[in-house]
What does this fold into?
Amino acid sequence: MRRILVADDNTGLRDVLVETLQSLGHMVRGVEDGLAAREVLLGEERWDLLLTDLRMPGLDGISLLKELKEAGREVAAIVMTAHGSVETAVKAMRFGAIDYVEKPFPLSAMEVKVEKALERLGIEAENRRLKDEIQHHFGSLIGGSPPMQRVFDLIARVGQTSTPVLVLGESGTGKELAAREVHRRSKRAKGPFVTVNCAALAEGVLESELFGHEKGAFTGATQQKYGKFELADKGTLFLDELGEIPLGTQVKLLRFLQEKELERVGGTKVMKVDVRVVAATNRNLKQMIEAGTFREDLFYRINVITIEMPPLRTRREDIPVLVDSLLIRHQENTGLRGVIADEVLSLFQIYEWPGNVRELENVLERALVLADGDENGVRQISGYDLPTEIRGGEGDPTAQREYLEATGLSQRIERIEREIIRKALQEANWNQTQAAKILHLKRSSLQYKMKKYDLNRPEPEDTSKS
Ligand SMILES: Nc1ncnc2c1ncn2[C@@H]1O[C@H](COP(=O)(O)OP(=O)(O)OP(=O)(O)O)[C@@H](O)[C@H]1O
Ligand SMILES: [Mg+2]
It folds into this structure.
């Protein structure tokens, strides 16, 4: 059922149209002129379609469409025009009308036009949804924020080449997902994607894992073994935790990147393979180079294209989409359906997320287990289901309760402001000058706010008692 508004000063035609469209199952209302139509359309209710006469007393059809457009409240419209004023109808289309009919018209013709328009509206709504989806999703990566859009853009572009890619970022920012996406969008997508976690293996084992070994290469090498490089031929090798590669293996890796050739451990045959290397690390490689634990030449070889995964706290606008998608993903996996309360989203917005998206994932999973279900079994996640560090742990339970029950916008903003200030003070070890600097506030303003929010340095814990 759609909601249709009919505006025409001709009572007879108006009533017939209203009845006909109602009989098609729509919610239809008739108004006698443009002024009345404007009032209804700018009101609270949502309208899907407007049928409007062009010449009406008070406010004519064109002016009506124009005003709606200016108010940002455009609605799909079919204009009805008297014989001979098709030009006016065309003008109406400039202001957003999607179709027109010349009067007099058979009712059946109007029915067809309305159905066509509604069908088109349905398609457009679907297109909008799909477009929205593309804007927020890139394969399994989610994020509509500018930094994530830049990441998506870069991934899409590197696909066409075979140059090495280095994915950097804190833990839980989606480095592995990004690496998979680089492969999926490349011309190697049909080839294998092979992962090696460089942190998990001891030096010798890692080497034969990467390059393979010949039978008898070392004690215990009872069989010939293919290396991951060979297995990744025509595809992508993902070196996860690159920063953990021992120096000895770094040399071999460098050689491969330079020559595209390798030898199995204990072997003499030189093999050529066609592999693209994508590596990831959460370590600061430049610092490691200075410390002598990562080879500079390898760094330059592998760091041809860098994808930096932004921490979640720098793209907070992605939190709502992430929460929605993670809840849906969780529901698909476990059947547990959850919704979050508004205050949870506010708390998420001020939390630092040191563990990034992985931490968000874990927090939601835990909350779903703790949350109470409503009569339909939907888990209602509230602030009480969050870990203390997110809920604002140190506060006494009554204060938390107040926070959760605060409903007005300004009240909520104040709570959030208080929390941000408290965190800054804590970080500055309650040194006001330093906290003021963190917050870009004058010290006097900070003091004013501390007083307002009753923020005081906590009493040192009494350790004399045992
Ligand atoms: N942008 C994102 N959209 C959707 N899910 C994400 C996103 N980023 C991370 N995740 C999810 O968070 C978890 C961690 O992601 P991933 O393993 O790719 O992180 P990582 O950067 O490799 O972390 P680490 O350095 O700890 O290995 C995964 O479950 C992943 O699905
Ligand atoms: Mg990882």
About this structure: The pocket of magnesium ion (ligand 2) is lined by residues 175-176, 240 (CB under 6 Å). The chain has 20 helices and 19 strands. Confidence is low (pLDDT under 50) at residues 462-466.
